[in-house]
Automatic annotation (TrEMBL):
Keyword entries, A-Z: Cell inner membrane, Cell membrane, Hydrolase, Membrane, Methyltransferase, Multifunctional enzyme, Protease, Transferase, Transmembrane, Transmembrane helix
Domain of life: Bacteria
Gene Ontology cellular component annotations, sorted alphabetically: plasma membrane
Transmembrane segments: 6-25, 103-122, 128-146, 153-173, 193-217, 229-249
Name by which UniProt lists this protein: Prepilin leader peptidase/N-methyltransferase
GO molecular function: aspartic-type endopeptidase activity; methyltransferase activity
InterPro entries registered for this protein in UniProt: Peptidase_A24A_bac, Prepilin_IV_endopep_pep, Prepilin_pept_A24_N, Prepilin_peptidase/N-MTase
Role summary: Plays an essential role in type IV pili and type II pseudopili formation by proteolytically removing the leader sequence from substrate proteins and subsequently monomethylating the alpha-amino group of the newly exposed N-terminal phenylalanine.
UniProt cross-references to Pfam families, sorted A to Z: A24_N_bact (PF06750), Peptidase_A24 (PF01478)
Bilayer topology: Multi-pass membrane protein
Documented EC number(s): 2.1.1.-, 3.4.23.43
Start and end residues of each Prepilin type IV endopeptidase peptidase domain: 106-214
Length: 261
């Protein structure tokens, strides 16, 4: 399949998934059904018309306001849709049209949902994290059985255990929340599938990004030393930094350790 066509199809898929993720982000923390009722305005309860449900374009058509009560619709809705499409295209560029691709597209989708939910309510819902373990195994295990061999999945399992132990230790001393501990092995499995370099980069980047955000918030007085800052977004951002750039990062670090003549 020509690459532009593949990217176009994946972008459309990403827009559709992003529209669904908006529902997930809003309803899952509230314990609401993802199916019923249909999409509606949270202010006047009017059902959203089909033409207004088209990702991104529906929001633009409505000029960011409900068609019935004119209540403002957050710009986050089209940003989630467009952001999901962009991340889907980036993941596709990374893995190509391969059997591995669906697993990492799924990871991209839940990463967006989990990051925004954690920012909203400071929680990583079990309803998303726990089923994702099964999805990861179902999507990646056949890849190992059909060609890559057992090494990637065994390495992924080892990385999952390693990150779980590390985060569990931090949680014991009050440095991590329970949701972070549950998410860590899932990210470890995905990164371990790719290699030990991505595991190291993803784990380190999470703390680097989380520390940078925390320092910035304190410097701007938007948070204090005792403020709770969600760490899930940093974990997920670090994981995707590793997915896309682990090789050049590890090569650069290795060059620093290699003495020059």
């Amino acid at each position: 399949m020509p690459q532009p066509l593949l990217f176009g199809i994946v972008a459309l898929l990403g827009l559709a998934v992003g529209s669904f993720l908006n529902v997930v982000i809003h309803r899952v923390p509230r314990g609401e059904s993802l199916v019923r009722p249909g999409s509606h305005c949270p202010r006047c309860d009017s059902e959203i018309r089909h033409r207004h449900n088209v990702p991104v374009f529906g929001w633009l058509l409505l000029r960011g306001r409900c068609a019935d009560c004119r209540a403002p619709i957050s710009v986050r809705y089209p940003l989630v849709e467009a952001g999901t499409a962009a991340l889907f295209v980036a993941v596709t560029a990374r893995f190509g049209l391969s059997w591995t691709l669906p697993a990492y597209l799924y990871l991209a989708a839940i990463a967006i949902a989990l990051a925004l939910i954690d920012l909203d309510v400071m929680r990583l819902p079990n309803a998303i994290v726990l089923p994702s373990y099964l999805v990861a195994v179902v999507l990646l295990a056949p890849v190992a059985l059909l060609g890559d061999g057992p090494a990637p999945i065994l390495r992924g399992l080892a990385a999952a255990v390693l990150l779980w132990a590390f985060y569990r230790l931090l949680a014991h001393f009050g440095g991590m929340g329970g949701g972070d501990v549950k998410l860590a092995p899932l990210l470890g499995f995905y990164l371990g599938w790719l290699g030990w370099g991505p595991v190291a980069v993803g784990a380190f980047a999470a703390f680097l990004l989380g520390g940078a955000v925390g320092a910035t918030l304190m410097a701007t007085r938007l948070a204090g030393r005792k403020s709770r800052i969600p760490f899930g977004p940093a974990m997920l951002a670090g994981a995707f930094l590793a997915v896309f750039a682990a090789a050049p990062i590890t090569d650069w670090y290795a060059s620093l350790l290699t003495p020059t003549a």
